[in-house]
Backbone:
Protein backbone atom coordinates (compact mmCIF):
# COMPACT_ATOMS: atom_id res chain seq x y z
CA UNK A 1 0.00 0.00 0.00
CA UNK A 2 2.80 2.42 0.90
CA UNK A 3 5.63 0.49 -0.63
CA UNK A 4 9.05 2.05 -0.18
CA UNK A 5 8.04 4.60 2.48
CA UNK A 6 10.24 3.05 5.18
CA UNK A 7 12.86 0.35 5.72
CA UNK A 8 14.76 -1.54 8.40
CA UNK A 9 14.15 -2.69 11.96
CA UNK A 10 15.04 -1.49 15.42
CA UNK A 11 17.75 1.17 15.41
CA UNK A 12 18.08 0.81 11.64
CA UNK A 13 14.47 1.83 10.95
CA UNK A 14 14.23 4.82 8.61
CA UNK A 15 11.54 6.66 6.71
CA UNK A 16 12.42 6.76 3.01
CA UNK A 17 11.95 9.81 0.83
CA UNK A 18 13.42 10.89 -2.48
CA UNK A 19 15.83 13.69 -3.34
CA UNK A 20 16.05 15.59 -6.64
CA UNK A 21 19.55 15.28 -8.07
CA UNK A 22 19.24 18.69 -9.74
CA UNK A 23 18.05 20.97 -6.91
CA UNK A 24 18.37 18.85 -3.75
CA UNK A 25 14.66 19.06 -2.80
CA UNK A 26 13.55 16.20 -0.55
CA UNK A 27 10.11 14.59 -0.77
CA UNK A 28 8.09 12.50 1.66
CA UNK A 29 5.98 10.58 0.86
CA UNK A 30 8.40 9.69 -1.91
CA UNK A 31 7.96 11.54 -5.19
CA UNK A 32 9.22 9.31 -8.01
CA UNK A 33 7.79 11.09 -11.05
CA UNK A 34 8.74 14.77 -11.01
CA UNK A 35 10.48 17.34 -8.84
CA UNK A 36 7.86 19.75 -7.46
CA UNK A 37 10.21 22.71 -7.11
CA UNK A 38 8.86 25.23 -9.66
CA UNK A 39 12.35 26.59 -10.25
CA UNK A 40 13.82 23.18 -11.10
CA UNK A 41 13.93 21.69 -14.58
CA UNK A 42 13.70 18.28 -12.93
CA UNK A 43 16.44 15.84 -12.13
CA UNK A 44 16.55 12.16 -11.31
CA UNK A 45 14.82 11.37 -8.02
CA UNK A 46 16.92 9.12 -5.80
CA UNK A 47 15.76 7.29 -2.70
CA UNK A 48 17.09 8.82 0.52
CA UNK A 49 16.63 7.81 4.18
CA UNK A 50 15.26 10.60 6.40
CA UNK A 51 16.59 11.60 9.81
CA UNK A 52 15.49 9.12 12.43
CA UNK A 53 14.90 11.77 15.10
CA UNK A 54 13.03 15.03 15.09
CA UNK A 55 11.12 17.47 17.31
CA UNK A 56 7.37 17.60 17.91
CA UNK A 57 5.80 20.41 15.82
CA UNK A 58 2.33 19.67 17.15
CA UNK A 59 0.13 16.77 18.23
CA UNK A 60 -3.48 15.76 18.68
CA UNK A 61 -5.60 12.64 18.92
CA UNK A 62 -8.72 11.09 17.45
CA UNK A 63 -11.35 10.49 20.11
CA UNK A 64 -13.88 9.25 17.58
CA UNK A 65 -13.48 6.31 15.24
CA UNK A 66 -12.37 7.60 11.83
CA UNK A 67 -14.30 6.51 8.72
CA UNK A 68 -13.00 4.03 6.17
CA UNK A 69 -10.58 3.61 4.49
CA UNK A 70 -9.03 3.61 7.99
CA UNK A 71 -9.40 0.02 9.15
CA UNK A 72 -10.75 -0.67 12.64
CA UNK A 73 -12.64 -3.49 14.32
CA UNK A 74 -16.15 -2.07 14.70
CA UNK A 75 -17.06 -4.68 17.32
CA UNK A 76 -14.25 -3.50 19.62
CA UNK A 77 -14.49 -0.34 21.73
CA UNK A 78 -12.74 2.60 20.09
CA UNK A 79 -9.25 3.28 21.46
CA UNK A 80 -8.11 6.81 20.51
CA UNK A 81 -4.68 7.07 18.93
CA UNK A 82 -2.34 10.03 19.05
CA UNK A 83 -1.04 11.82 15.97
CA UNK A 84 2.28 13.68 16.03
CA UNK A 85 3.64 16.12 13.43
CA UNK A 86 7.42 15.98 13.63
CA UNK A 87 9.94 18.50 12.32
CA UNK A 88 13.11 16.92 10.90
CA UNK A 89 15.89 19.52 11.13
CA UNK A 90 18.21 18.32 8.37
CA UNK A 91 15.43 17.92 5.80
CA UNK A 92 13.43 20.96 7.04
CA UNK A 93 10.24 18.95 6.67
CA UNK A 94 7.31 18.15 8.98
CA UNK A 95 6.08 14.54 8.84
CA UNK A 96 2.80 13.38 10.39
CA UNK A 97 2.50 9.95 11.97
CA UNK A 98 0.74 8.03 14.69
CA UNK A 99 2.43 7.79 18.07
CA UNK A 100 3.35 4.32 19.34
CA UNK A 101 0.44 2.69 21.21
CA UNK A 102 0.21 3.85 24.82
CA UNK A 103 1.48 7.39 24.18
CA UNK A 104 -1.28 9.93 24.79
CA UNK A 105 -1.39 13.70 24.35
CA UNK A 106 -0.62 14.00 28.08
CA UNK A 107 2.82 12.49 27.41
CA UNK A 108 3.76 15.06 24.75
CA UNK A 109 4.92 18.65 24.41
CA UNK A 110 5.79 20.77 21.37
CA UNK A 111 9.57 20.67 20.90
CA UNK A 112 10.03 17.24 22.51
CA UNK A 113 12.40 14.82 20.73
CA UNK A 114 10.84 11.76 19.08
CA UNK A 115 12.14 8.99 16.85
CA UNK A 116 10.68 6.91 14.04
CA UNK A 117 10.06 3.25 14.87
CA UNK A 118 8.29 0.44 13.00
CA UNK A 119 4.70 -0.38 13.86
CA UNK A 120 1.69 -2.41 12.78
CA UNK A 121 -1.21 -0.49 11.28
CA UNK A 122 -3.55 -3.43 10.95
CA UNK A 123 -3.48 -7.19 10.48
CA UNK A 124 -5.89 -9.86 9.42
CA UNK A 125 -5.51 -13.59 8.90
CA UNK A 126 -3.58 -13.13 5.66
CA UNK A 127 -1.82 -9.76 5.81
CA UNK A 128 0.04 -7.52 8.24
CA UNK A 129 0.12 -3.85 7.21
CA UNK A 130 3.24 -2.27 8.68
CA UNK A 131 3.74 1.46 9.17
CA UNK A 132 5.89 4.01 10.95
CA UNK A 133 5.22 5.43 14.41
CA UNK A 134 6.69 8.29 16.40
CA UNK A 135 8.00 7.47 19.88
CA UNK A 136 9.44 9.94 22.40
CA UNK A 137 13.16 9.23 22.77
CA UNK A 138 13.97 7.46 26.01
CA UNK A 139 10.70 5.52 25.90
CA UNK A 140 11.36 1.84 25.26
CA UNK A 141 7.89 0.36 24.99
CA UNK B 1 -13.03 50.83 -12.15
CA UNK B 2 -13.39 48.48 -15.07
CA UNK B 3 -12.29 45.41 -13.10
CA UNK B 4 -15.40 45.45 -10.92
CA UNK B 5 -18.63 43.51 -11.29
CA UNK B 6 -21.96 44.20 -9.61
CA UNK B 7 -23.76 41.89 -7.19
CA UNK B 8 -27.37 42.28 -8.30
CA UNK B 9 -28.84 39.49 -6.26
CA UNK B 10 -28.08 37.14 -3.37
CA UNK B 11 -30.06 34.14 -2.15
CA UNK B 12 -29.77 31.15 0.14
CA UNK B 13 -31.52 27.97 1.12
CA UNK B 14 -31.32 27.69 4.92
CA UNK B 15 -28.55 25.38 6.21
CA UNK B 16 -29.48 22.24 8.12
CA UNK B 17 -29.89 18.49 7.67
CA UNK B 18 -32.88 18.53 5.41
CA UNK B 19 -32.44 15.15 3.73
CA UNK B 20 -33.16 16.41 0.22
CA UNK B 21 -31.12 16.62 -2.99
CA UNK B 22 -28.50 19.32 -3.44
CA UNK B 23 -30.40 20.32 -6.60
CA UNK B 24 -33.38 21.46 -4.53
CA UNK B 25 -31.20 23.63 -2.30
CA UNK B 26 -29.38 25.14 -5.27
CA UNK B 27 -32.54 25.91 -7.21
CA UNK B 28 -34.19 27.49 -4.14
CA UNK B 29 -31.11 29.68 -3.61
CA UNK B 30 -30.96 30.55 -7.33
CA UNK B 31 -34.62 31.55 -7.48
CA UNK B 32 -34.16 33.71 -4.36
CA UNK B 33 -31.12 35.42 -5.90
CA UNK B 34 -32.97 36.03 -9.19
CA UNK B 35 -35.94 37.56 -7.33
CA UNK B 36 -33.54 39.69 -5.28
CA UNK B 37 -31.90 40.88 -8.50
CA UNK B 38 -35.17 41.44 -10.33
CA UNK B 39 -33.80 39.40 -13.24
CA UNK B 40 -35.77 36.77 -15.17
CA UNK B 41 -33.89 33.46 -15.49
CA UNK B 42 -34.44 33.56 -19.26
CA UNK B 43 -32.43 36.81 -19.41
CA UNK B 44 -29.37 35.28 -17.72
CA UNK B 45 -26.44 34.88 -20.17
CA UNK B 46 -24.43 32.30 -18.25
CA UNK B 47 -24.65 29.99 -15.24
CA UNK B 48 -21.70 28.76 -13.18
CA UNK B 49 -22.22 25.85 -10.79
CA UNK B 50 -19.87 24.98 -7.92
CA UNK B 51 -19.62 21.19 -7.96
CA UNK B 52 -20.38 18.74 -5.21
CA UNK B 53 -18.68 15.36 -5.26
CA UNK B 54 -21.80 13.99 -3.61
CA UNK B 55 -25.10 13.49 -5.37
CA UNK B 56 -23.68 11.27 -8.10
CA UNK B 57 -22.88 12.34 -11.66
CA UNK B 58 -25.12 15.44 -11.67
CA UNK B 59 -23.05 16.78 -8.75
CA UNK B 60 -19.96 16.87 -10.97
CA UNK B 61 -21.79 18.91 -13.60
CA UNK B 62 -23.51 21.28 -11.21
CA UNK B 63 -23.86 24.16 -13.69
CA UNK B 64 -25.84 22.09 -16.16
CA UNK B 65 -27.78 20.37 -13.35
CA UNK B 66 -29.05 23.66 -11.98
CA UNK B 67 -29.69 25.00 -15.51
CA UNK B 68 -31.81 21.96 -16.36
CA UNK B 69 -33.74 22.22 -13.11
CA UNK B 70 -34.41 25.93 -13.68
CA UNK B 71 -35.37 25.15 -17.30
CA UNK B 72 -32.98 24.95 -20.25
CA UNK B 73 -32.78 28.42 -21.79
CA UNK B 74 -29.55 28.29 -23.78
CA UNK B 75 -27.19 29.98 -21.31
CA UNK B 76 -23.43 29.46 -21.44
CA UNK B 77 -22.72 26.83 -18.75
CA UNK B 78 -19.69 26.20 -16.52
CA UNK B 79 -19.03 23.79 -13.63
CA UNK B 80 -16.07 24.13 -11.26
CA UNK B 81 -14.62 22.12 -8.40
CA UNK B 82 -12.06 23.43 -5.93
CA UNK B 83 -13.02 21.83 -2.61
CA UNK B 84 -13.90 24.56 -0.06
CA UNK B 85 -12.88 27.22 -2.60
CA UNK B 86 -15.36 25.92 -5.22
CA UNK B 87 -17.76 28.79 -4.64
CA UNK B 88 -15.02 31.39 -5.03
CA UNK B 89 -13.81 29.79 -8.25
CA UNK B 90 -17.41 29.86 -9.51
CA UNK B 91 -17.57 33.57 -8.68
CA UNK B 92 -14.17 34.02 -10.33
CA UNK B 93 -15.31 32.27 -13.51
CA UNK B 94 -18.49 34.36 -13.66
CA UNK B 95 -16.54 37.56 -13.10
CA UNK B 96 -14.02 36.68 -15.81
CA UNK B 97 -16.83 36.10 -18.33
CA UNK B 98 -18.40 39.45 -17.44
CA UNK B 99 -15.12 41.38 -17.57
CA UNK B 100 -14.21 39.69 -20.88
CA UNK B 101 -17.51 40.82 -22.36
CA UNK B 102 -18.74 37.26 -22.87
CA UNK B 103 -21.76 37.77 -20.61
CA UNK B 104 -23.67 40.67 -19.09
CA UNK B 105 -25.43 38.80 -16.31
CA UNK B 106 -24.38 35.51 -14.72
CA UNK B 107 -26.00 33.25 -12.13
CA UNK B 108 -23.60 31.55 -9.67
CA UNK B 109 -24.93 28.60 -7.65
CA UNK B 110 -23.45 26.22 -5.06
CA UNK B 111 -25.31 23.62 -3.02
CA UNK B 112 -24.62 20.41 -1.14
CA UNK B 113 -26.27 17.60 0.76
CA UNK B 114 -23.44 16.60 3.09
CA UNK B 115 -23.08 13.11 4.54
CA UNK B 116 -23.39 12.58 8.28
CA UNK B 117 -20.25 12.59 10.39
CA UNK B 118 -16.68 12.97 9.17
CA UNK B 119 -15.96 13.89 5.59
CA UNK B 120 -14.21 10.94 3.93
CA UNK B 121 -12.53 10.31 0.60
CA UNK B 122 -14.34 8.78 -2.37
CA UNK B 123 -14.54 4.97 -2.23
CA UNK B 124 -12.26 2.26 -3.55
CA UNK B 125 -8.57 1.46 -2.98
CA UNK B 126 -6.77 4.52 -4.29
CA UNK B 127 -3.23 4.79 -2.92
CA UNK B 128 -2.39 7.40 -5.57
CA UNK B 129 -4.77 9.85 -3.84
CA UNK B 130 -3.26 11.84 -0.91
CA UNK B 131 -6.74 12.29 0.56
CA UNK B 132 -7.31 8.52 0.59
CA UNK B 133 -3.82 7.90 1.99
CA UNK B 134 -4.14 10.17 5.01
CA UNK B 135 -7.26 8.30 6.10
CA UNK B 136 -5.95 4.81 5.31
CA UNK B 137 -2.44 5.18 6.73
CA UNK B 138 -2.99 7.64 9.59
CA UNK B 139 -6.74 7.89 10.23
CA UNK B 140 -6.17 11.65 9.98
CA UNK B 141 -9.66 13.19 9.78
CA UNK B 142 -10.20 16.90 9.14
CA UNK B 143 -10.64 17.64 12.88
CA UNK B 144 -7.23 16.10 13.64
CA UNK B 145 -5.61 18.73 11.41
CA UNK B 146 -7.62 21.44 13.21
CA UNK B 147 -6.38 19.94 16.49
CA UNK B 148 -2.76 20.12 15.31
CA UNK B 149 -3.14 23.81 14.39
CA UNK B 150 -4.86 24.60 17.69
CA UNK B 151 -2.17 22.88 19.77
CA UNK B 152 0.54 24.64 17.78
CA UNK B 153 -1.08 28.02 18.53
CA UNK B 154 -1.18 27.15 22.23
CA UNK B 155 2.52 26.25 22.19
CA UNK B 156 3.74 29.18 20.08
CA UNK B 157 1.37 32.01 20.99
CA UNK B 158 0.00 30.98 24.37
CA UNK B 159 -3.63 30.70 23.22
CA UNK B 160 -5.86 28.73 25.59
CA UNK B 161 -8.89 26.47 25.09
CA UNK B 162 -10.85 29.24 26.82
CA UNK B 163 -9.82 31.65 24.05
CA UNK B 164 -11.00 29.14 21.46
CA UNK B 165 -14.34 28.77 23.27
CA UNK B 166 -14.87 32.54 23.13
CA UNK B 167 -14.89 32.34 19.32
CA UNK B 168 -17.83 29.92 19.54
CA UNK B 169 -19.57 32.14 22.08
CA UNK B 170 -19.21 35.13 19.73
CA UNK B 171 -20.26 33.33 16.54
CA UNK B 172 -23.20 31.49 18.08
CA UNK B 173 -24.59 34.80 19.34
CA UNK B 174 -24.57 36.03 15.72
CA UNK B 175 -25.92 32.77 14.32
CA UNK B 176 -28.84 33.03 16.71
CA UNK B 177 -29.88 36.16 14.78
CA UNK B 178 -29.53 34.62 11.30
CA UNK B 179 -32.61 32.92 9.80
CA UNK B 180 -30.40 31.00 7.32
CA UNK B 181 -28.16 29.49 10.01
CA UNK B 182 -28.54 25.87 11.07
CA UNK B 183 -27.70 26.49 14.75
CA UNK B 184 -29.66 29.35 16.23
CA UNK B 185 -28.89 28.99 19.90
CA UNK B 186 -26.39 31.03 21.90
CA UNK B 187 -23.63 28.86 23.34
CA UNK B 188 -21.77 29.58 26.59
CA UNK B 189 -18.09 28.96 27.33
CA UNK B 190 -19.21 26.38 29.90
CA UNK B 191 -21.14 24.49 27.23
CA UNK B 192 -18.08 24.42 24.98
CA UNK B 193 -15.91 23.17 27.87
CA UNK B 194 -18.49 20.50 28.71
CA UNK B 195 -18.68 19.14 25.15
CA UNK B 196 -16.73 16.01 24.21
CA UNK B 197 -13.12 16.24 23.03
CA UNK B 198 -12.95 15.38 19.33
CA UNK B 199 -9.28 16.04 18.54
CA UNK B 200 -7.31 17.37 21.51
CA UNK B 201 -7.43 20.26 22.40
CA UNK B 202 -10.62 20.84 20.37
CA UNK B 203 -14.08 19.87 21.50
CA UNK B 204 -17.29 19.18 19.64
CA UNK B 205 -18.44 22.80 19.93
CA UNK B 206 -15.06 24.06 18.63
CA UNK B 207 -15.55 22.24 15.32
CA UNK B 208 -18.09 22.93 12.60
CA UNK B 209 -20.61 20.28 11.58
CA UNK B 210 -21.42 19.01 8.10
CA UNK B 211 -24.68 20.39 6.73
CA UNK B 212 -26.95 20.73 3.75
CA UNK B 213 -27.41 24.16 2.23
CA UNK B 214 -27.34 26.33 -0.87
CA UNK B 215 -26.29 29.82 -1.88
CA UNK B 216 -26.49 31.82 -5.12
CA UNK B 217 -25.52 35.19 -6.56
CA UNK B 218 -26.55 37.14 -9.64
CA UNK B 219 -23.52 39.04 -10.94
CA UNK B 220 -23.50 41.55 -13.78
CA UNK B 221 -21.44 44.18 -15.51
CA UNK B 222 -21.68 47.67 -13.99
CA UNK B 223 -23.28 48.82 -17.24
CA UNK B 224 -25.99 46.18 -16.99
CA UNK B 225 -26.62 47.17 -13.36
CA UNK B 226 -27.01 50.82 -14.38
CA UNK B 227 -29.37 49.95 -17.25
CA UNK B 228 -31.25 47.73 -14.80
CA UNK B 229 -31.80 50.74 -12.54
CA UNK B 230 -29.25 49.92 -9.85
CA UNK B 231 -27.06 53.01 -9.62
CA UNK B 232 -25.00 52.00 -6.61
CA UNK B 233 -24.70 48.20 -6.44
CA UNK B 234 -22.47 46.20 -4.14
CA UNK B 235 -19.37 45.57 -6.27
CA UNK B 236 -16.87 42.73 -6.24
CA UNK B 237 -13.45 44.29 -6.67
CA UNK B 238 -11.24 41.23 -6.16
CA UNK B 239 -11.44 37.45 -6.33
CA UNK B 240 -8.31 35.67 -5.10
CA UNK B 241 -7.95 31.99 -5.99
CA UNK B 242 -4.16 31.72 -5.59
CA UNK B 243 -2.27 28.49 -4.95
CA UNK B 244 0.46 28.07 -2.34
CA UNK B 245 4.10 28.77 -3.19
CA UNK B 246 6.70 25.99 -2.95
CA UNK B 247 7.82 25.04 -0.38
CA UNK B 248 4.75 25.06 1.88
CA UNK B 249 6.00 24.64 5.43
CA UNK B 250 2.70 24.42 7.32
CA UNK B 251 1.14 20.96 7.35
CA UNK B 252 -2.14 21.26 5.44
CA UNK B 253 -5.10 19.07 4.52
CA UNK B 254 -4.77 16.45 3.09
CA UNK B 255 -0.97 16.15 3.27
CA UNK B 256 1.03 13.64 5.32
CA UNK B 257 4.09 15.92 5.28
CA UNK B 258 5.02 19.48 4.36
CA UNK B 259 7.30 20.32 1.48
CA UNK B 260 10.95 20.27 2.49
CA UNK B 261 12.61 23.68 2.78
CA UNK B 262 16.06 22.08 2.40
CA UNK B 263 16.65 23.33 -1.14
CA UNK B 264 14.41 26.41 -1.52
CA UNK B 265 13.90 29.08 1.12
CA UNK B 266 10.17 29.50 1.90
CA UNK B 267 8.41 32.76 0.96
CA UNK B 268 8.06 35.04 3.97
CA UNK B 269 4.28 34.95 3.66
CA UNK B 270 2.45 31.73 4.56
CA UNK B 271 -0.28 30.44 2.24
CA UNK B 272 -3.33 31.78 4.06
CA UNK B 273 -1.78 35.25 4.29
CA UNK B 274 -0.95 35.16 0.57
CA UNK B 275 -4.61 34.44 -0.26
CA UNK B 276 -5.68 37.62 1.53
CA UNK B 277 -2.74 39.61 0.21
CA UNK B 278 -3.64 38.81 -3.41
CA UNK B 279 -7.22 39.99 -2.81
CA UNK B 280 -6.13 43.23 -1.12
CA UNK B 281 -3.65 43.93 -3.92
CA UNK B 282 -6.26 43.41 -6.63
CA UNK B 283 -8.91 45.52 -4.86
CA UNK B 284 -6.49 48.25 -3.81
CA UNK B 285 -7.56 48.02 -0.17
CA UNK B 286 -5.86 46.92 3.05
CA UNK B 287 -6.93 45.47 6.39
CA UNK B 288 -7.45 48.96 7.81
CA UNK B 289 -10.16 49.67 5.21
CA UNK B 290 -12.33 46.70 6.24
CA UNK B 291 -15.72 47.03 7.88
CA UNK B 292 -16.13 43.29 8.39
CA UNK B 293 -14.74 39.89 7.43
CA UNK B 294 -16.29 36.47 6.83
CA UNK B 295 -13.72 33.70 7.37
CA UNK B 296 -13.74 29.91 7.46
CA UNK B 297 -14.04 29.00 11.13
CA UNK B 298 -13.80 25.26 10.51
CA UNK B 299 -12.55 25.32 14.07
CA UNK B 300 -12.61 28.11 16.62
CA UNK B 301 -8.79 28.14 16.67
CA UNK B 302 -8.68 28.49 12.89
CA UNK B 303 -10.74 31.70 13.07
CA UNK B 304 -8.01 33.18 15.28
CA UNK B 305 -5.42 32.15 12.71
CA UNK B 306 -7.31 34.07 10.03
CA UNK B 307 -7.18 37.30 12.09
CA UNK B 308 -3.42 37.22 11.69
CA UNK B 309 -3.40 36.03 8.10
CA UNK B 310 -5.87 38.77 7.09
CA UNK B 311 -3.62 41.33 8.78
CA UNK B 312 -6.27 42.33 11.35
CA UNK B 313 -3.51 42.07 13.96
CA UNK B 314 0.13 41.05 14.23
CA UNK B 315 1.20 37.40 14.41
CA UNK B 316 0.37 35.91 17.79
CA UNK B 317 -2.03 38.73 18.70
CA UNK B 318 -5.30 37.10 17.60
CA UNK B 319 -6.48 35.98 21.02
CA UNK B 320 -5.78 39.48 22.33
CA UNK B 321 -7.85 40.98 19.48
CA UNK B 322 -10.71 38.62 20.34
CA UNK B 323 -10.51 39.36 24.08
CA UNK B 324 -10.63 43.09 23.35
CA UNK B 325 -13.92 42.56 21.51
CA UNK B 326 -12.53 43.99 18.25
CA UNK B 327 -13.97 41.10 16.21
CA UNK B 328 -17.37 41.07 17.95
CA UNK B 329 -20.40 43.09 16.82
CA UNK B 330 -19.73 46.75 17.50
CA UNK B 331 -15.98 46.13 17.54
CA UNK B 332 -13.37 47.63 15.22
CA UNK B 333 -13.59 44.73 12.73
CA UNK B 334 -16.44 42.28 13.29
CA UNK B 335 -15.60 38.78 12.02
CA UNK B 336 -18.27 36.30 10.96
CA UNK B 337 -21.34 38.44 11.64
CA UNK B 338 -23.29 35.71 9.77
CA UNK B 339 -22.50 33.32 12.61
CA UNK B 340 -19.83 31.61 10.51
CA UNK B 341 -19.50 27.92 9.74
CA UNK B 342 -19.84 27.48 13.46
CA UNK B 343 -23.52 28.36 13.05
CA UNK B 344 -24.02 27.14 9.48
CA UNK B 345 -21.96 23.94 9.19
CA UNK B 346 -20.20 22.90 6.02
CA UNK B 347 -22.05 22.65 2.71
CA UNK B 348 -18.81 22.76 0.76
CA UNK B 349 -19.65 24.21 -2.70
CA UNK B 350 -22.06 26.73 -1.18
CA UNK B 351 -19.83 28.15 1.53
CA UNK B 352 -17.72 30.71 -0.29
CA UNK B 353 -20.87 31.90 -2.12
CA UNK B 354 -22.75 32.16 1.18
CA UNK B 355 -19.94 34.34 2.54
CA UNK B 356 -20.45 36.76 -0.36
CA UNK B 357 -24.24 36.69 0.19
CA UNK B 358 -23.66 37.78 3.78
CA UNK B 359 -21.27 40.60 2.91
CA UNK B 360 -23.70 41.74 0.18
CA UNK B 361 -26.53 42.05 2.71
CA UNK B 362 -24.17 43.75 5.16
CA UNK B 363 -22.94 46.27 2.57
CA UNK B 364 -26.53 47.03 1.54
CA UNK B 365 -27.54 47.52 5.18
CA UNK B 366 -30.01 44.61 4.94
CA UNK B 367 -28.53 42.29 7.57
CA UNK B 368 -31.21 42.98 10.16
CA UNK B 369 -30.27 42.42 13.78
CA UNK B 370 -26.72 41.35 12.86
CA UNK B 371 -26.02 44.46 10.75
CA UNK B 372 -22.51 45.95 11.05
CA UNK B 373 -23.15 49.71 11.16
CA UNK B 374 -21.93 51.66 8.14
CA UNK B 375 -20.34 48.68 6.38
CA UNK B 376 -18.40 49.80 3.27
CA UNK B 377 -15.66 47.24 2.57
CA UNK B 378 -15.73 43.51 3.32
CA UNK B 379 -13.43 40.57 2.75
CA UNK B 380 -14.21 36.85 2.72
CA UNK B 381 -11.57 34.15 3.06
CA UNK B 382 -11.17 30.42 3.00
CA UNK B 383 -8.74 27.68 2.13
CA UNK B 384 -9.67 24.47 0.34
CA UNK B 385 -8.21 20.98 0.28
CA UNK B 386 -5.32 20.44 -2.17
CA UNK B 387 -3.98 24.03 -2.08
CA UNK B 388 -7.06 25.99 -3.07
CA UNK B 389 -7.17 29.58 -1.84
CA UNK B 390 -10.17 31.89 -1.86
CA UNK B 391 -10.83 35.47 -0.87
CA UNK B 392 -13.30 38.01 -2.22
CA UNK B 393 -13.33 41.76 -1.61
CA UNK B 394 -16.72 43.50 -1.92
CA UNK B 395 -17.32 47.22 -1.58
CA UNK B 396 -20.10 49.75 -1.70
Residues:
Amino acid sequence: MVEGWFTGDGDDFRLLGTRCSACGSVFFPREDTFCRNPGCQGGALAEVPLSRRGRVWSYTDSRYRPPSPYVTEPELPWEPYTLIAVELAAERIVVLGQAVPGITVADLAVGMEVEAVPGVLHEDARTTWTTWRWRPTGVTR
Amino acid sequence: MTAEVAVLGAGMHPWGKWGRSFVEYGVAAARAALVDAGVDWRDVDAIVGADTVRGGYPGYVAGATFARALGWQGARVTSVYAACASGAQAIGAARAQILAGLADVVLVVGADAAPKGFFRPAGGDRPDDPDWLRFRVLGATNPTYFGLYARRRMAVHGDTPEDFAQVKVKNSAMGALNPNARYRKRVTAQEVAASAVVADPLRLLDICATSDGGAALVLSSLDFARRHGVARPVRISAVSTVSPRYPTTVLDLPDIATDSAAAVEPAGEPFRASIAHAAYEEAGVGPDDLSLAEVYDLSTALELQWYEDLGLCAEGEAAKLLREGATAPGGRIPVNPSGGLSSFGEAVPAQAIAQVCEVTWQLRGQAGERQVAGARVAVTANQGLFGHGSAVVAVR
Observations:
- Chain A touches chain B through 47 residues (CB under 8 Å).
- The mean pLDDT of chain A is 95.
- Residues 26 and 80 of chain A are 32 Å apart (CA to CA).
- Chain A is about 0% helix and 40% strand.
